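Hey,

Quick one before I head out. I ran the complex with manganese (II) ion overnight. Inputs first:
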Amino acid sequence: MRLLIRVAKEAQRKYFHRTSCYRFTSEGSTLRKGPVEECKWLCGSSQNILSAVREQVEVRQNFISEEEENALFKEVEKGLRKKRYEFDHWDDAIHGYRETERLQWGDVCESILRRVRAVAFPEGSPLLGPVHVLDLDKLGYIKPHIDSVKFCGSTIAGLSLLSDSVMRLVQENNSADWVDLLLNRRSLYILRDDARFKFTHEILKDEESFFSGQRVPRHRRISVICRNLPV
Ligand code: OGA
Ligand code: MN
């Protein structure tokens, strides 16, 4: 898994001008003059970019319960606690982290992961066996990168434990186009297709962690990430 991160293509952080943030709104059916639906976890640089990525990004709030979060935490902590947080590799895509991977899970965690796979991946899609566990220190963050296209397929699905955070996607060939996803603690996010291949993704560091102008304090955060294989 280490390899997988190392070969993740790191993008240069270009000058990032924070203009106003657009929220995704979709007028309900014209017949049903209901309230305008809002997507509370998504904002971005324009309505166009929001419409373009809307089908390829998803955040499911409260995908796991507090008990399930605890069960996952207990199980991943065993593999993590032997390791030290890595801070000094400035060329890495990730700063202030430790990681592990896990193939075999206890019953509770296995059933959570089954649910993740059922909602995230196309049926029959071959999956990467080991699940990736990434523990970001409070001072840790993930720089903009694209996961290796050689080792990972069209879909990335991650559970967020312990802390809320903001994931930013920036279009690789036009950094003026970006969207932010609010990843609440215990949510599941899914990136698919262009959102995964044509946008870099990153997790903002605590001091830059804002969503739609609102501060989102970043504490220690553990993500449990499932990926599929390239076809
Ligand atoms: C990665 C990554 C996101 C997350 O490990 O490649 O982008 O949610 N992780 O931790
Ligand atoms: Mn990644």
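The two ends are 19 Å apart (CA to CA).

Talk tomorrow,
K.
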